[in-house]
Design brief:
Length: 253
Amino acid sequence: MTIDLTDKTVLVTGASRGIGHALAQGLAAAGATVAVHYNKNSTAAEELALALGSGARPFAADLRHSSEVESLFARVVEVYGKLDVLVNNAGLARLVPLTAPIDIWEQAWDETMAVNLKATELLNRLAVKHFVNRGEGGRIINIASRAAFRGDTPEYLAYAASKGGVVALTRSIARAYGKSGICAFVIAPGFVRTDMAQESIDEYGEDFVLDNIALQRLTEPEDLAPIVTLLAGGYADHATGTTIDINAASYVH
């Protein structure tokens, strides 16, 4: 089967590195025009957009701030005239020991919720309005985590809670707006070999990570790209509302 996304414009948040970088590459390889969101790494985002071609452009936004989230969405629509697919990939995981002072915990909690859940909800909200107004539907793919279902270590309680919220958000949108042609999906990775996961790997060791999966190697960002590309193309719309685990059976291991 050939997946053709040549008529699709896709916004991928957190696309300058890690999972988002691989998703942007996979989508562009199928012909999509990718809006490459980044926060600080402008050089990486610009290089990626240039490599992707097909009209890809970088868009800066600090997702901790709702005004920048709103501006990001508006700029993407202004540049391309439309958006067909939203991929919410950007996220952060702050390591906070149980013994951390309350002010440190509160800052980590607020930042985690702002990026992982609040910004995701706002982008979903803006996308739904856009899709309804266009009358052509659209697709939302939210990257959550296995932590939403099996929990996480005590140092990452906020991260697990935020990703649980992403799952509930996605299911709510799928139920509410399916008749408008809007489909919403969750991808639930486990440990993926990215810069963000490296802190946990350093903390617990790679052997600990490998012992928690059923396969012989750690999941790579590129392992997520095929299913995201499939969903973006509308080839699995009747799976709307579902969660797809791409975590080497670590959710059930």
